[in-house]
Amino acid sequence: MITGPVTNDELALRSSIGLFLFAPPGINERLIEQAGFHLVRQEDVTSNAALVSGRWHRAREAQRASLLETEGEARFEGLQRFFGAVHRLTTERRLSRIVYLVEKRAG
Q1: What does the alpha-carbon distance between residue 66 and residue 36 come to, in Å, rounded to a whole number?
Q2: 9 burial class (0-12, 13-18, 19+ CB within 10 angstroms)?
Q3: How far apart are CA 12 and CA 85, in angstroms?
Q4: Do residues 102 and 32 touch, judged by C-beta distance below 8 A?
Q5: Is-contact 96 1, C-beta < 8 A?
Q6: Which of 10, 33, 59, 79 sits 20 to 30 Å CA-CA off 49?
Q7: Angstrom distance (rounded) from CA 42 to CA 22
Q8: Dihedral over alpha carbons 20, 49, 47, 45 (to 10 degrees)
Q9: At 62, phi and psi to the nearest 5?
Q10: pTM for the whole structure
Q11: pLDDT value at position 68?
């Protein structure tokens, strides 16, 4: 979820490993209701994303030589840029990670 100013370059880095959809606040909740579900609870787990991405970045850096042999320089550096972007954007709370618990409406 976009919760602050993010550049197009930052979004490109953040989505460089696959398909991601970035939405402003309120969109997911509206789509959950439109799909016929009831939103039971939502939780902001952005701090978890920041923690994990930082750990991945540091762990990969510590194993740089080994990973360069396995992945090659382009893949290694691309993933490091990805984890760095995730960590920066979530730490600064410009992108947020929200978990939703929903239930199907009766009937």
Answers
A1: 49
A2: exposed
A3: 10
A4: yes
A5: yes
A6: 33
A7: 17
A8: 60
A9: -65, -25
A10: 0.88
A11: 98
Could you list the mean pLDDT of each consecutive 10-residue stretch along the chain, which spans 107 residues?
95 93 94 96 98 98 98 97 97 97 90
| Residue extents of the structural domains in the chain | 8-104
CATH topology of domain 8-104: Rossmann fold (3.40.50)
Q: Token pair for residue 22? A: 């970035």
* Contact present, 1 and 24 (Cβ < 8 Å): yes
Name beta bridge partners: 44: 98
Q: How far apart are CA 40 and CA 93, in angstroms?
A: 24
**pLDDT value, residue 106:** 83
Could you tell me the two tokens for 77? 């550096």
Total residue length of the chain: 107
